[in-house]
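Fold tokens
===========
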Amino acid sequence: MRGALVKYERTKCYDCVDRTHLKIILSPEGLASTFSKQWASSLLVNYFRYLQETGVTISCVRKNVDSAKKILLLAESAFLSPSEISIGWVEKICAEAPKRLKWVKISLLCFLQEQGILKMPDDNDLLQARILRQIERIPAGFRRLVSVYYQTRFDLRKRQISNNEDAPLSLTTINSDVEMFSRFVRWLVHEHQEVGYWNMVQESHINEFLLTLTPKHRELVRKDLHALFKLARRRKFITHIPMADYPSRELPPSTEPLSVAEQKRVARILMQNVHANPLGCLLGCLCFFHGLATKQIRSIRLFDVDPACKKIIIKDRPPVYLSTEELLALENYVKLRSCMRNVNKREYLVIGDRGAGHKIYENKPLGARAILKKVKELTGCTSQQLRITCYHSFSARFGPLMLIDAFGLSKTHASRYGRFEEYLLEEEIRSQRED
């Protein structure tokens, strides 16, 4: 029970005040005096029930219902039926409204989606819209080429998907390229105001920009810029390619694997926290013993977990088979997960329960930053360090081919942790010694 209001020598708790307030608003008399259309009042009542199912506090329910009532009043005056409500309209109203109305946006959008009134865009649609917004912000003299590059890569992605290729070009890759081109253009505008078009870019400008980057990032950006200029030359945007194309240099790894002593320390920490910190232990084990990336961990859904067979199904790689300690950490975490809010409508294994934002209302996994933070707090190492250590250890013992078979890595990725020829040579030497 929260604090109490004392008035006229009578005590009433805040929760009781909120319940009384909601009872008045949602009563037939209150709804009739507020709304003139039946669909608006029905939506408010159903929204109240939706919030109750999520398990948020009565105070949060009261605040959201008050805010939703004001938004639905505007919708009632603007539309003839709820089917006319759009995501853009809700976001516009919440953006123009006072700050407290903005709190209700996520929960209201999720509710309208559950009611079948709205269809939320998927991640690819959101990413595509983000790419187009970035292109629009590029100065006019440089925008056309970046737009052509985006359309060319997007058409390639569609052809790959229609041909059922195993690994089509991802929108994330296209987005990172457009971000990099946009960054290069911003640097040009800031450092060289005289350069207003692509055909005015010289090699000295490119080299000067590359020197502002880290050595590892520099090679990737150089290759992408050369691909952009090749497209520009082919499409007649420029008359010559203003940079030389030379072979990429093999740079030393930026993240070193853990030493044997550090590996023992991390393994001991993970085994000691099966009960005290089951989520951190589970995340650390998936990175350290199974080499899972954060993206792969976030993609695990409840139906991917098979406790009877002690395995977790992972997309595009072999299953993860759990040890006894890992299975115990999973069971302890599932017990904690069952006590989280709105858990029945959230199908991902690793979820969050802090605050009243998208972690509660939306069917999304725990954020990547939160996963990295939990692994770092428990083990003292980043998830990348644990994953790289896993790959190095397996490659040193069984050869890089094992990384392809056991972890689903590509040949290029596996070659970073050992040379295929060296392992075959060691195997031949070992067999001759045994003979």
